[in-house]
Amino acid sequence: QVQLVESGGGLVQAGGSLRLSCAASGTIFSIPSMSWYRQAPGKQRELVATIISGGSTNYADPVKGRFIISRDNAKNTMYLQMNSLKDEDTAVYYCYANVHTGLRLANYWGQGTQVTVSS
After folding, report:
1. How many C-beta neighbours within 10 Å does residue 53 have?
2. Which residues pair with 5 in a beta bridge?
3. Strand 67-72 to strand 77-82: parallel, antiparallel, or no bridges (unpaired)?
4. pLDDT tens-digit profile of 40-61?
5. Arithmetic mean of pLDDT over the chain
6. Euclidean distance between CA atoms 5 and 103, whole angstroms
7. Which residues, in sequence order, are CB contacts of 41 under 8 Å at separation 6+?
8. C-beta of residue 91 within 8 angstroms of C-beta of residue 38
9. Using an 8 Å Cβ cutoff, are 12 and 118 in contact?
10. In sequence order, what E strands does the chain have?
């Protein structure tokens, strides 16, 4: 079994910064890819950014140039540095990981962490 635990959410003023973390634990052989998703009230969950084990990254257009995704493979931890935050970044942010447990490859979600940006 694999668990993903997010932390770092909170209330921040527009223009401010937050750093989210996602720690994976359990039976882990490798984590080929990790992503951040977010879901605002009344909206569908959307992909924010993805990072693969080799370090390549992809970002959704609304966050390009403002958010930075990174990971520490030794700690099985992923981060999202969010800068120049806007009202529209308010959402619950979810960690998502594609994990190889040694027996199978499966996808897991974290429980989410709330980010609220006030103007």
Report:
1. 13
2. 23
3. antiparallel
4. 999 999 999 999 988 999 999 9
5. 97
6. 22
7. none
8. yes
9. yes
10. 2-7, 10-13, 18-26, 30-39, 46-52, 57-59, 67-72, 77-82, 91-100, 105-109, 113-118
